[in-house]
Amino acid sequence: MPPVIKKIIAVIVILVIANVGFVWYGQASFDTTFQSLAKAFSENNATAARQSNPPAPIARQIERSKVAQNGYGTILLQLEGTYRRKPSSKAIGMHALALLRPTPDMLWAVRLESNPIVTFNALETYHGGRAKMQTMLFGIIPTGEFDSEAFAKSELTRVLAYALFNPALLACECIAYEPVDAHRIRATISDGGITATVLFESDEKGDIVKVTSDDRVRPVKGGMAPAPWQMTVQNYGDLDGLRIPVSVEEAWILEGKPAVYADYRVTSAKRL
Predict the structure, then answer these.
(1) Is 261 exposed, middle or buried (0-12, 13-18, 19+ CB in 10 A)?
(2) What pLDDT score was predicted for residue 116?
(3) I need a labelling partner for 114 at 20 to 30 A (CA). Which of 34, 83, 171, 175 fits?
(4) What is the pLDDT of residues 2-56, one digit of tens each?
(5) Quick check: 105 and 192 in contact, CB under 8 A?
(6) Residue 129 to residues 9, 44, 100, 193, 240: CA-CA distances in angstroms?
(7) CATH hierarchy code of domain 3-271
């Protein structure tokens, strides 16, 4: 092999090794940050007043979740699936950890894998009417930050919708329920001076299988824009004593049609 070719190969190998090391360092740094936040999150023993007599569809959902027999202060979820930045984008790998409590609080850490080398991370928090999302290339290079009032309302909407994963929240007095018909009930949550509303829809068996809302914003070029949103539960399962959704799709409603941006499975749940 000619010496020039050997040198080129050597340089390529060095660059690949250096890049892998950089990615590993960035991910390790991101994981350390999340672990620190998660520790503080789980050690905060905040409580909220509970409803003694929620509407029948909500009471049924709470009962079927088995949360009365298997309570928790925090629930840790692990999710695996795919994500699309926009409807025309190729689906990429998504890995996420979520911490939820029986109060309107949320902590998410997400890793998106464009390919085995290039990764993007996002850290999302909601508490007391304020929300923040930081996005990072390789887990350490900042690429964006969102913390507006509209974004906080959007994240509070997620907190409410994700009560299906966090059934203890469904009985919180911070949520007002309004039955619409035999299969739908409107829920409005108030926290930190803001409110958000979702519509829970049940199937013939009484399980909530769809959540819709007009209170969310989606990423667009240059920032965020309001968009109707829906979450569809494809299957329920039992994880760590709780019956919660284990197969889920989330979509923006664009031009009257759902554009799925996240399709994932809850692979584990741990009550803390």
Answers:
(1) buried
(2) 66
(3) 34
(4) 665 655 554 444 444 444 444 444 455 556 666 776 677 767 767 788 998 999 9
(5) no
(6) 54, 17, 15, 6, 30
(7) 2.50.20
* Band of residue 88 on the pLDDT scale cut at 50, 70, 90: confident
Q: Is 66 left (phi over 0), alpha (psi -120 to 50) or beta?
A: left
246 and 265 Cβ atoms separated by less than 8 Å = yes
**pLDDT number for residue 24:** 44
User: How far, in Å, CA of 217 to CA of 152, rounded?
Assistant: 10
Q: Where are the domains of the chain?
A: 3-271
Q: In this structure, what DSSP letter does residue 91 have? A: P
Residue with tokens 């936040």: 37
Q: What are phi and psi of 60, to 5 degrees?
A: -65, -40
Asked whether 236 and 211 are in contact (CB, 8 A), the reply is no
Take residue 42 and report the two structure tokens written for it.
């789980």
Task: Please give the average per-residue pLDDT across 164-186, as a whole number.
Answer: 97
Q: What is the rounded distance in angstroms from the CA atom of residue 197 to the CA atom of residue 217?
A: 13
Confidence of residue 89 (pLDDT cuts 50, 70, 90): confident
